[in-house]
Amino acid sequence: MVKRILFVTLMSALTLFAQAQVNVPSAEETPQLEFALQLRVTLDAPYGVGETQHGRRTVIPITGGTFEGPLLKGTIINGGADYQLANAEGRTEIEAIYSIKTDDGVYIHVRNRGIICSGKDAEGRPSFYFKAAPQFEAPANSRYAWLNNAIFVCQPAFNTDFKGIVLNVWKVK
């Protein structure tokens, strides 16, 4: 019994010591973001699959659009879709799967996963969160291979003049 109490006390002390040893990264150690591109995605009318065992499934067809950034430019290929799964608490998981084509004819596959969440923040105020992390599959022997070897994040830029969604994408450096 005494050994057990000593063991629990020692483990508690080690846990507190380990927690006290956390060093917050400096500004130089914190990842930075570099603007990569803006996608202007056109969409067709959404349709609902309905309530599934995982939540309410909605599909939004991707019909086209354009993209442009400092190192690439082109069009979004018709035929992809944004697959959304919503729960009763106001959280929606998104997964958009589509392809883009650069102005010089290179096809790139995109899979963009993220969440949309509306609710209340820690102080009880209304909040809205919409972020995603696109992954790109570009030909390894192309000038766009750099897309394969980085993490990207994106968020919408709401524009009432555009019939679709505008997404700004940053590369994490």
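Next protein, fold it too.
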Amino acid sequence: MDKVAQIDLLDKNVVPKTHFSFMVRDNTYFVLVLLMIFSYFYNLPVISYSIKGDNEFRLYDIVGVFIMFVFVANFKFFYYIITKVKVFKWFFYFALWCTLTILVTLFFSIFKDNINAFIQSVLYLFHLWVFFVTALMFFIISFNRNKLNIFVLFILVLSVISSILIIMQNFGFVPFLWNATYKAGYAGFLSGTLGPNKIITGMYSLMMAAFAIGLLNNKKSGINKLFLIFVVFINLYVLLLSGSRTSYVGLIIFFAFFAFFKTSRFVFFATLAGFVFAFLIVTNDTLYSKIDDVISNRVVSKVENEEDLQNANVGKLYEDLGAGRDNISIGYIKFILNNPEIIPFGLGFNNRLTRAIAAHNMYLTTIKELGIVGFVLYFGWLIQYLLIPFKKYGGNELAIKGLALSMLVTLYFGEHLYIYRPLFATLGMFLLVMTALMSYLHDNEVDTKNTN
């Protein structure tokens, strides 16, 4: 992985601090990352304000200010890490390109007399950088294996709490937690504290299930196996309950890769999963009926011809299940072809002043907003995950490459790994999970003794 395991932690000549491991040893940075992890699961607003209508600050907006201060104050140090890890290098250049192209968005905002659109774009850009720098800090601090284990356990425990909260909501024990605007806009979808959009719940559950499956197949993860199995199944249940058809596709892609990559373990897992869900169905009809209602309403009822479902007619199923996204995609393709001047560099980061409707297709969104340059940098970043040479930790390889493939496919149907406000911290969570899986490759470890 671009010599990530060969970083010399004791080389004092390449960083601006007296000791390379300052971030590993200082618990202040550790706490900052823990707060960011918590904020990804707690997306409810912590401060409300008004520029135009109702606006909200979330916990990661506030903690992110400190994260970015650390990044700027120690840029030489962070840049050294970025240059050593290709995944970070590609995302760093993508973020830089977004920062550059936001100037075009500013031009459109001034020209169309809508400066609020630019201010909103700046906030999205801030999120992009904060999510990235948090992943960097996570990666660096995880050179201490004890802290890595705490990070991983913290993510998994929050995932379980979040899943239980969502299940309790769906059984009527907990009310809708968002305000009336969200309730009207998202039909009161029950998703705990993650965010009221179905795809947030679905993608979080997919990432957490894949993460736990990877750790299950990693003999040195140090996480209790029974707990990991519980994490897998509760997240699979919530994923099915989410009603996110894009997430269903992602799950299918991940399981297909699982079956190909580790066939014998997949057979064992599939058998175990079958027994668990069969037990749940037999012992509690309500659990089954909840899932059955969601799938019937969100999938089966949308398919006009049952034979298309039986024969896996992808084109027709996309037309039936895509909620009009096939027509939106065609419209975007026509828009781009009719304006070929935007193809090289795009119309500006988050510039929705020229075409307000979302593409629901990350491939088209990157070309329209960031041009071919942004397209190459963004998908080049995702492809880098597939190129990481794991010589050990096969479970981590299964999870990281399976998730990357899932995203490469599902991003054709959505923009869940971007920074639009309705999708909240999904990108941040993805970066954290993938970074956690990479962090097990650290060969050099640093203890937590506070020596100078």
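About the second fold: The CA atoms of residues 42 and 193 lie 5 Å apart.
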